[in-house]
Structure formats: structure tokens, C-alpha cells
Specification:
Structural class: alpha+beta
Distance between the termini: 30 Å
Helix content: 25-40%
Strand content: 15-25%
Largest sheet: 5 strands, antiparallel
Shape: elongated
């Protein structure tokens, strides 16, 4: 196994059963024949070796899924190194961290590292209460409801609701926390864009309007021309804000639908946030 800190050296690299290396880098996860950008990994955890023969005790595999739905797994030749790979990955992506069981034999005392009972087949399993991908890793109903509400808060409490749900679920409900965090920063971005458009537009409009009123003569026939340009800026400003709000609502609804289904959703430009 090779380890390093930064730059061109892998943080962790382990040999795989059947050949090849699985390595964690600062910006990517590399498996034989493929490279996965760290920012595009949506889930990672332990699963049973999918290539284990029927009836055999499976070894632990490292599995991951990308934001595009691509799923892959790899089985280290030395079983404990599956935990080392995941710890290195979680160090780079703390938002993906999930509780990992201590490694232990599949026969004997689960969760305690040591040899299996005499005469039994050596193997590895997970601590009680931990299930591989597809079971425990699927968010429960409460998490999906809270995640869906955080996206739908674009209609109500766009900043307060997802912020509260993020803070409440952080550290105990990873799916709800991640989706609420995404919703909060997206809604915050929309709010900032609205202000950037609104404030200069309002300044231009009211400056022109008050200037028009100040220069208004007592003789109505001598009235200056209405500041059409300023009024046009005002209309364009609100049109742009309306478009931004429509886009935000569309993404909010899409995010809510995905969240209620328990699927990961990432707003544009917020992939890793």
C-alpha cells in the first residue's frame, strides 16, 4: 500500500483481489480502468464482495455511486484495507461520511477483529445494525420528507427552513442534512442574485424619477420628457428577477421529487457543497 499527502501521490492505494489498484487521491478515486472525480461521488460505503462464489463467505468491498447514478465496487486483497480506503475518502469528502462498523470475522464474534472459531471458514462481516448499500444506506421516510421540504421551501421560508433542517440533521441524518444544505445554499444564491439585480435597478429608477419631479416646471406645457429609459430599466429588472424565480422554482420542485424518492440531488454549480 502506498500513502502520501498531496500532489502527485495517492493518499491511499491498495491492491485488489484479481489485480489492479484502488487509490484515493485529493481530487479523485481511481479504480482499474476508471477514474471518478471526488466531487461527483454521491455515496460510498461497505458491501459484500459481489464476485464471491455462491455459499462462500464474502469479503468486504468498497462501493461507491456517482451523482450520475453510476455504481461500482472493488474488493481489496487485504480485507482491513477496505476500511482504510473509505476513511481516506471520507477525509476528503466529510459530507459522505457514514458510521463504519469495526472489521471482524463473519463467524464468531461480529464486530471484533480476530480469528474465527477453529474449523470454520474465515471471512468478514459488518457489525450488528449495519447493512450494505441498498438497505441501511437508503434514507428512511423521515429523512426523505425533511429533504423534500427543504427543496420545497423555495415557496416558503426559502432560507430559514433548509437552514434549520440542515443544522438539526447534521451528524445524525446524512441524507436530509446534505439535501437541506444544498437547498439552503441554492436559495441563498438566488436571494443574492435578486439583490444584485434589484438594488442597482431601483437606484437608477428612483434617481431618474426624483430628478424628473425636481425639474418639473410650473407651466405644464414645459414639462420635461418622462424618463422612459429609467422605466424600461425597471421593467427589465423585474423581468430578469421573474425568470430567476421561475428557474429556482423549477429546480426546487425537481429536487423535492428526487428527495421524496430518496435519490441524491445536486443543484447546478453546487455539486460538492
Amino acid at each position: 500500500m502506498s500513502t502520501g499527502a498531496t500532489g502527485g501521490t495517492a493518499l491511499v492505494g491498495v491492491a485488489l483481489r484479481g489485480g489492479g489498484t484502488l487509490s484515493v487521491w485529493a481530487d479523485r478515486l481511481e479504480a482499474p480502468g476508471a477514474s471518478y472525480p471526488m466531487a461527483e461521488i454521491a455515496w460510498a460505503g461497505l458491501v459484500n464482495d459481489p464476485a464471491a462464489p455462491a455459499g462462500a463467505q464474502p469479503l468486504p468491498s468498497v462501493a461507491w455511486r456517482t451523482t450520475s447514478g453510476q455504481y461500482a465496487s472493488a474488493t481489496p486483497a487485504d480485507p482491513p484495507q477496505a476500511w482504510q480506503v473509505l476513511e481516506a475518502l471520507f477525509a476528503q469528502r466529510p459530507d459522505l461520511r457514514i458510521p463504519l462498523p469495526p472489521p471482524g470475522p463473519s463467524l464468531g464474534q461480529p464486530g471484533v477483529w480476530g480469528p474465527p472459531p477453529p474449523g470454520s471458514m474465515p471471512g468478514y462481516a459488518y457489525a450488528p445494525g449495519y447493512a450494505p448499500y441498498g438497505l441501511a444506506q437508503q434514507p428512511d421516510h423521515n429523512q426523505t420528507v425533511m429533504a423534500g421540504l427543504s427543496h420545497l421551501s423555495i415557496f416558503f421560508g426559502a432560507l430559514i427552513v433548509p437552514l434549520i433542517l440542515w443544522l438539526v440533521n447534521r451528524g445524525k441524518s446524512p441524507y436530509a442534512a446534505q439535501q437541506s444544505k444544498q437547498a439552503f445554499f441554492f436559495h441563498l444564491g438566488v436571494w443574492i442574485i435578486d439583490l444584485v439585480i434589484l438594488i442597482p435597478g431601483m437606484i437608477i429608477y428612483f434617481t431618474s424619477f426624483f430628478s424628473f419631479m425636481e425639474n418639473m416646471p410650473t407651466d405644464p406645457t414645459q414639462a420635461p420628457a418622462f424618463p422612459v429609459a429609467a422605466f424600461t430599466v425597471f421593467i427589465i429588472m423585474y423581468a430578469i428577477i421573474l425568470v430567476v424565480q421561475i428557474i429556482a422554482i423549477v429546480f426546487g420542485v425537481i429536487g423535492a421529487v428526487k428527495a421524496f424518492q430518496g435519490k441524491p440531488f445536486h443543484y447546478p454549480l453546487l455539486g460538492r457543497v
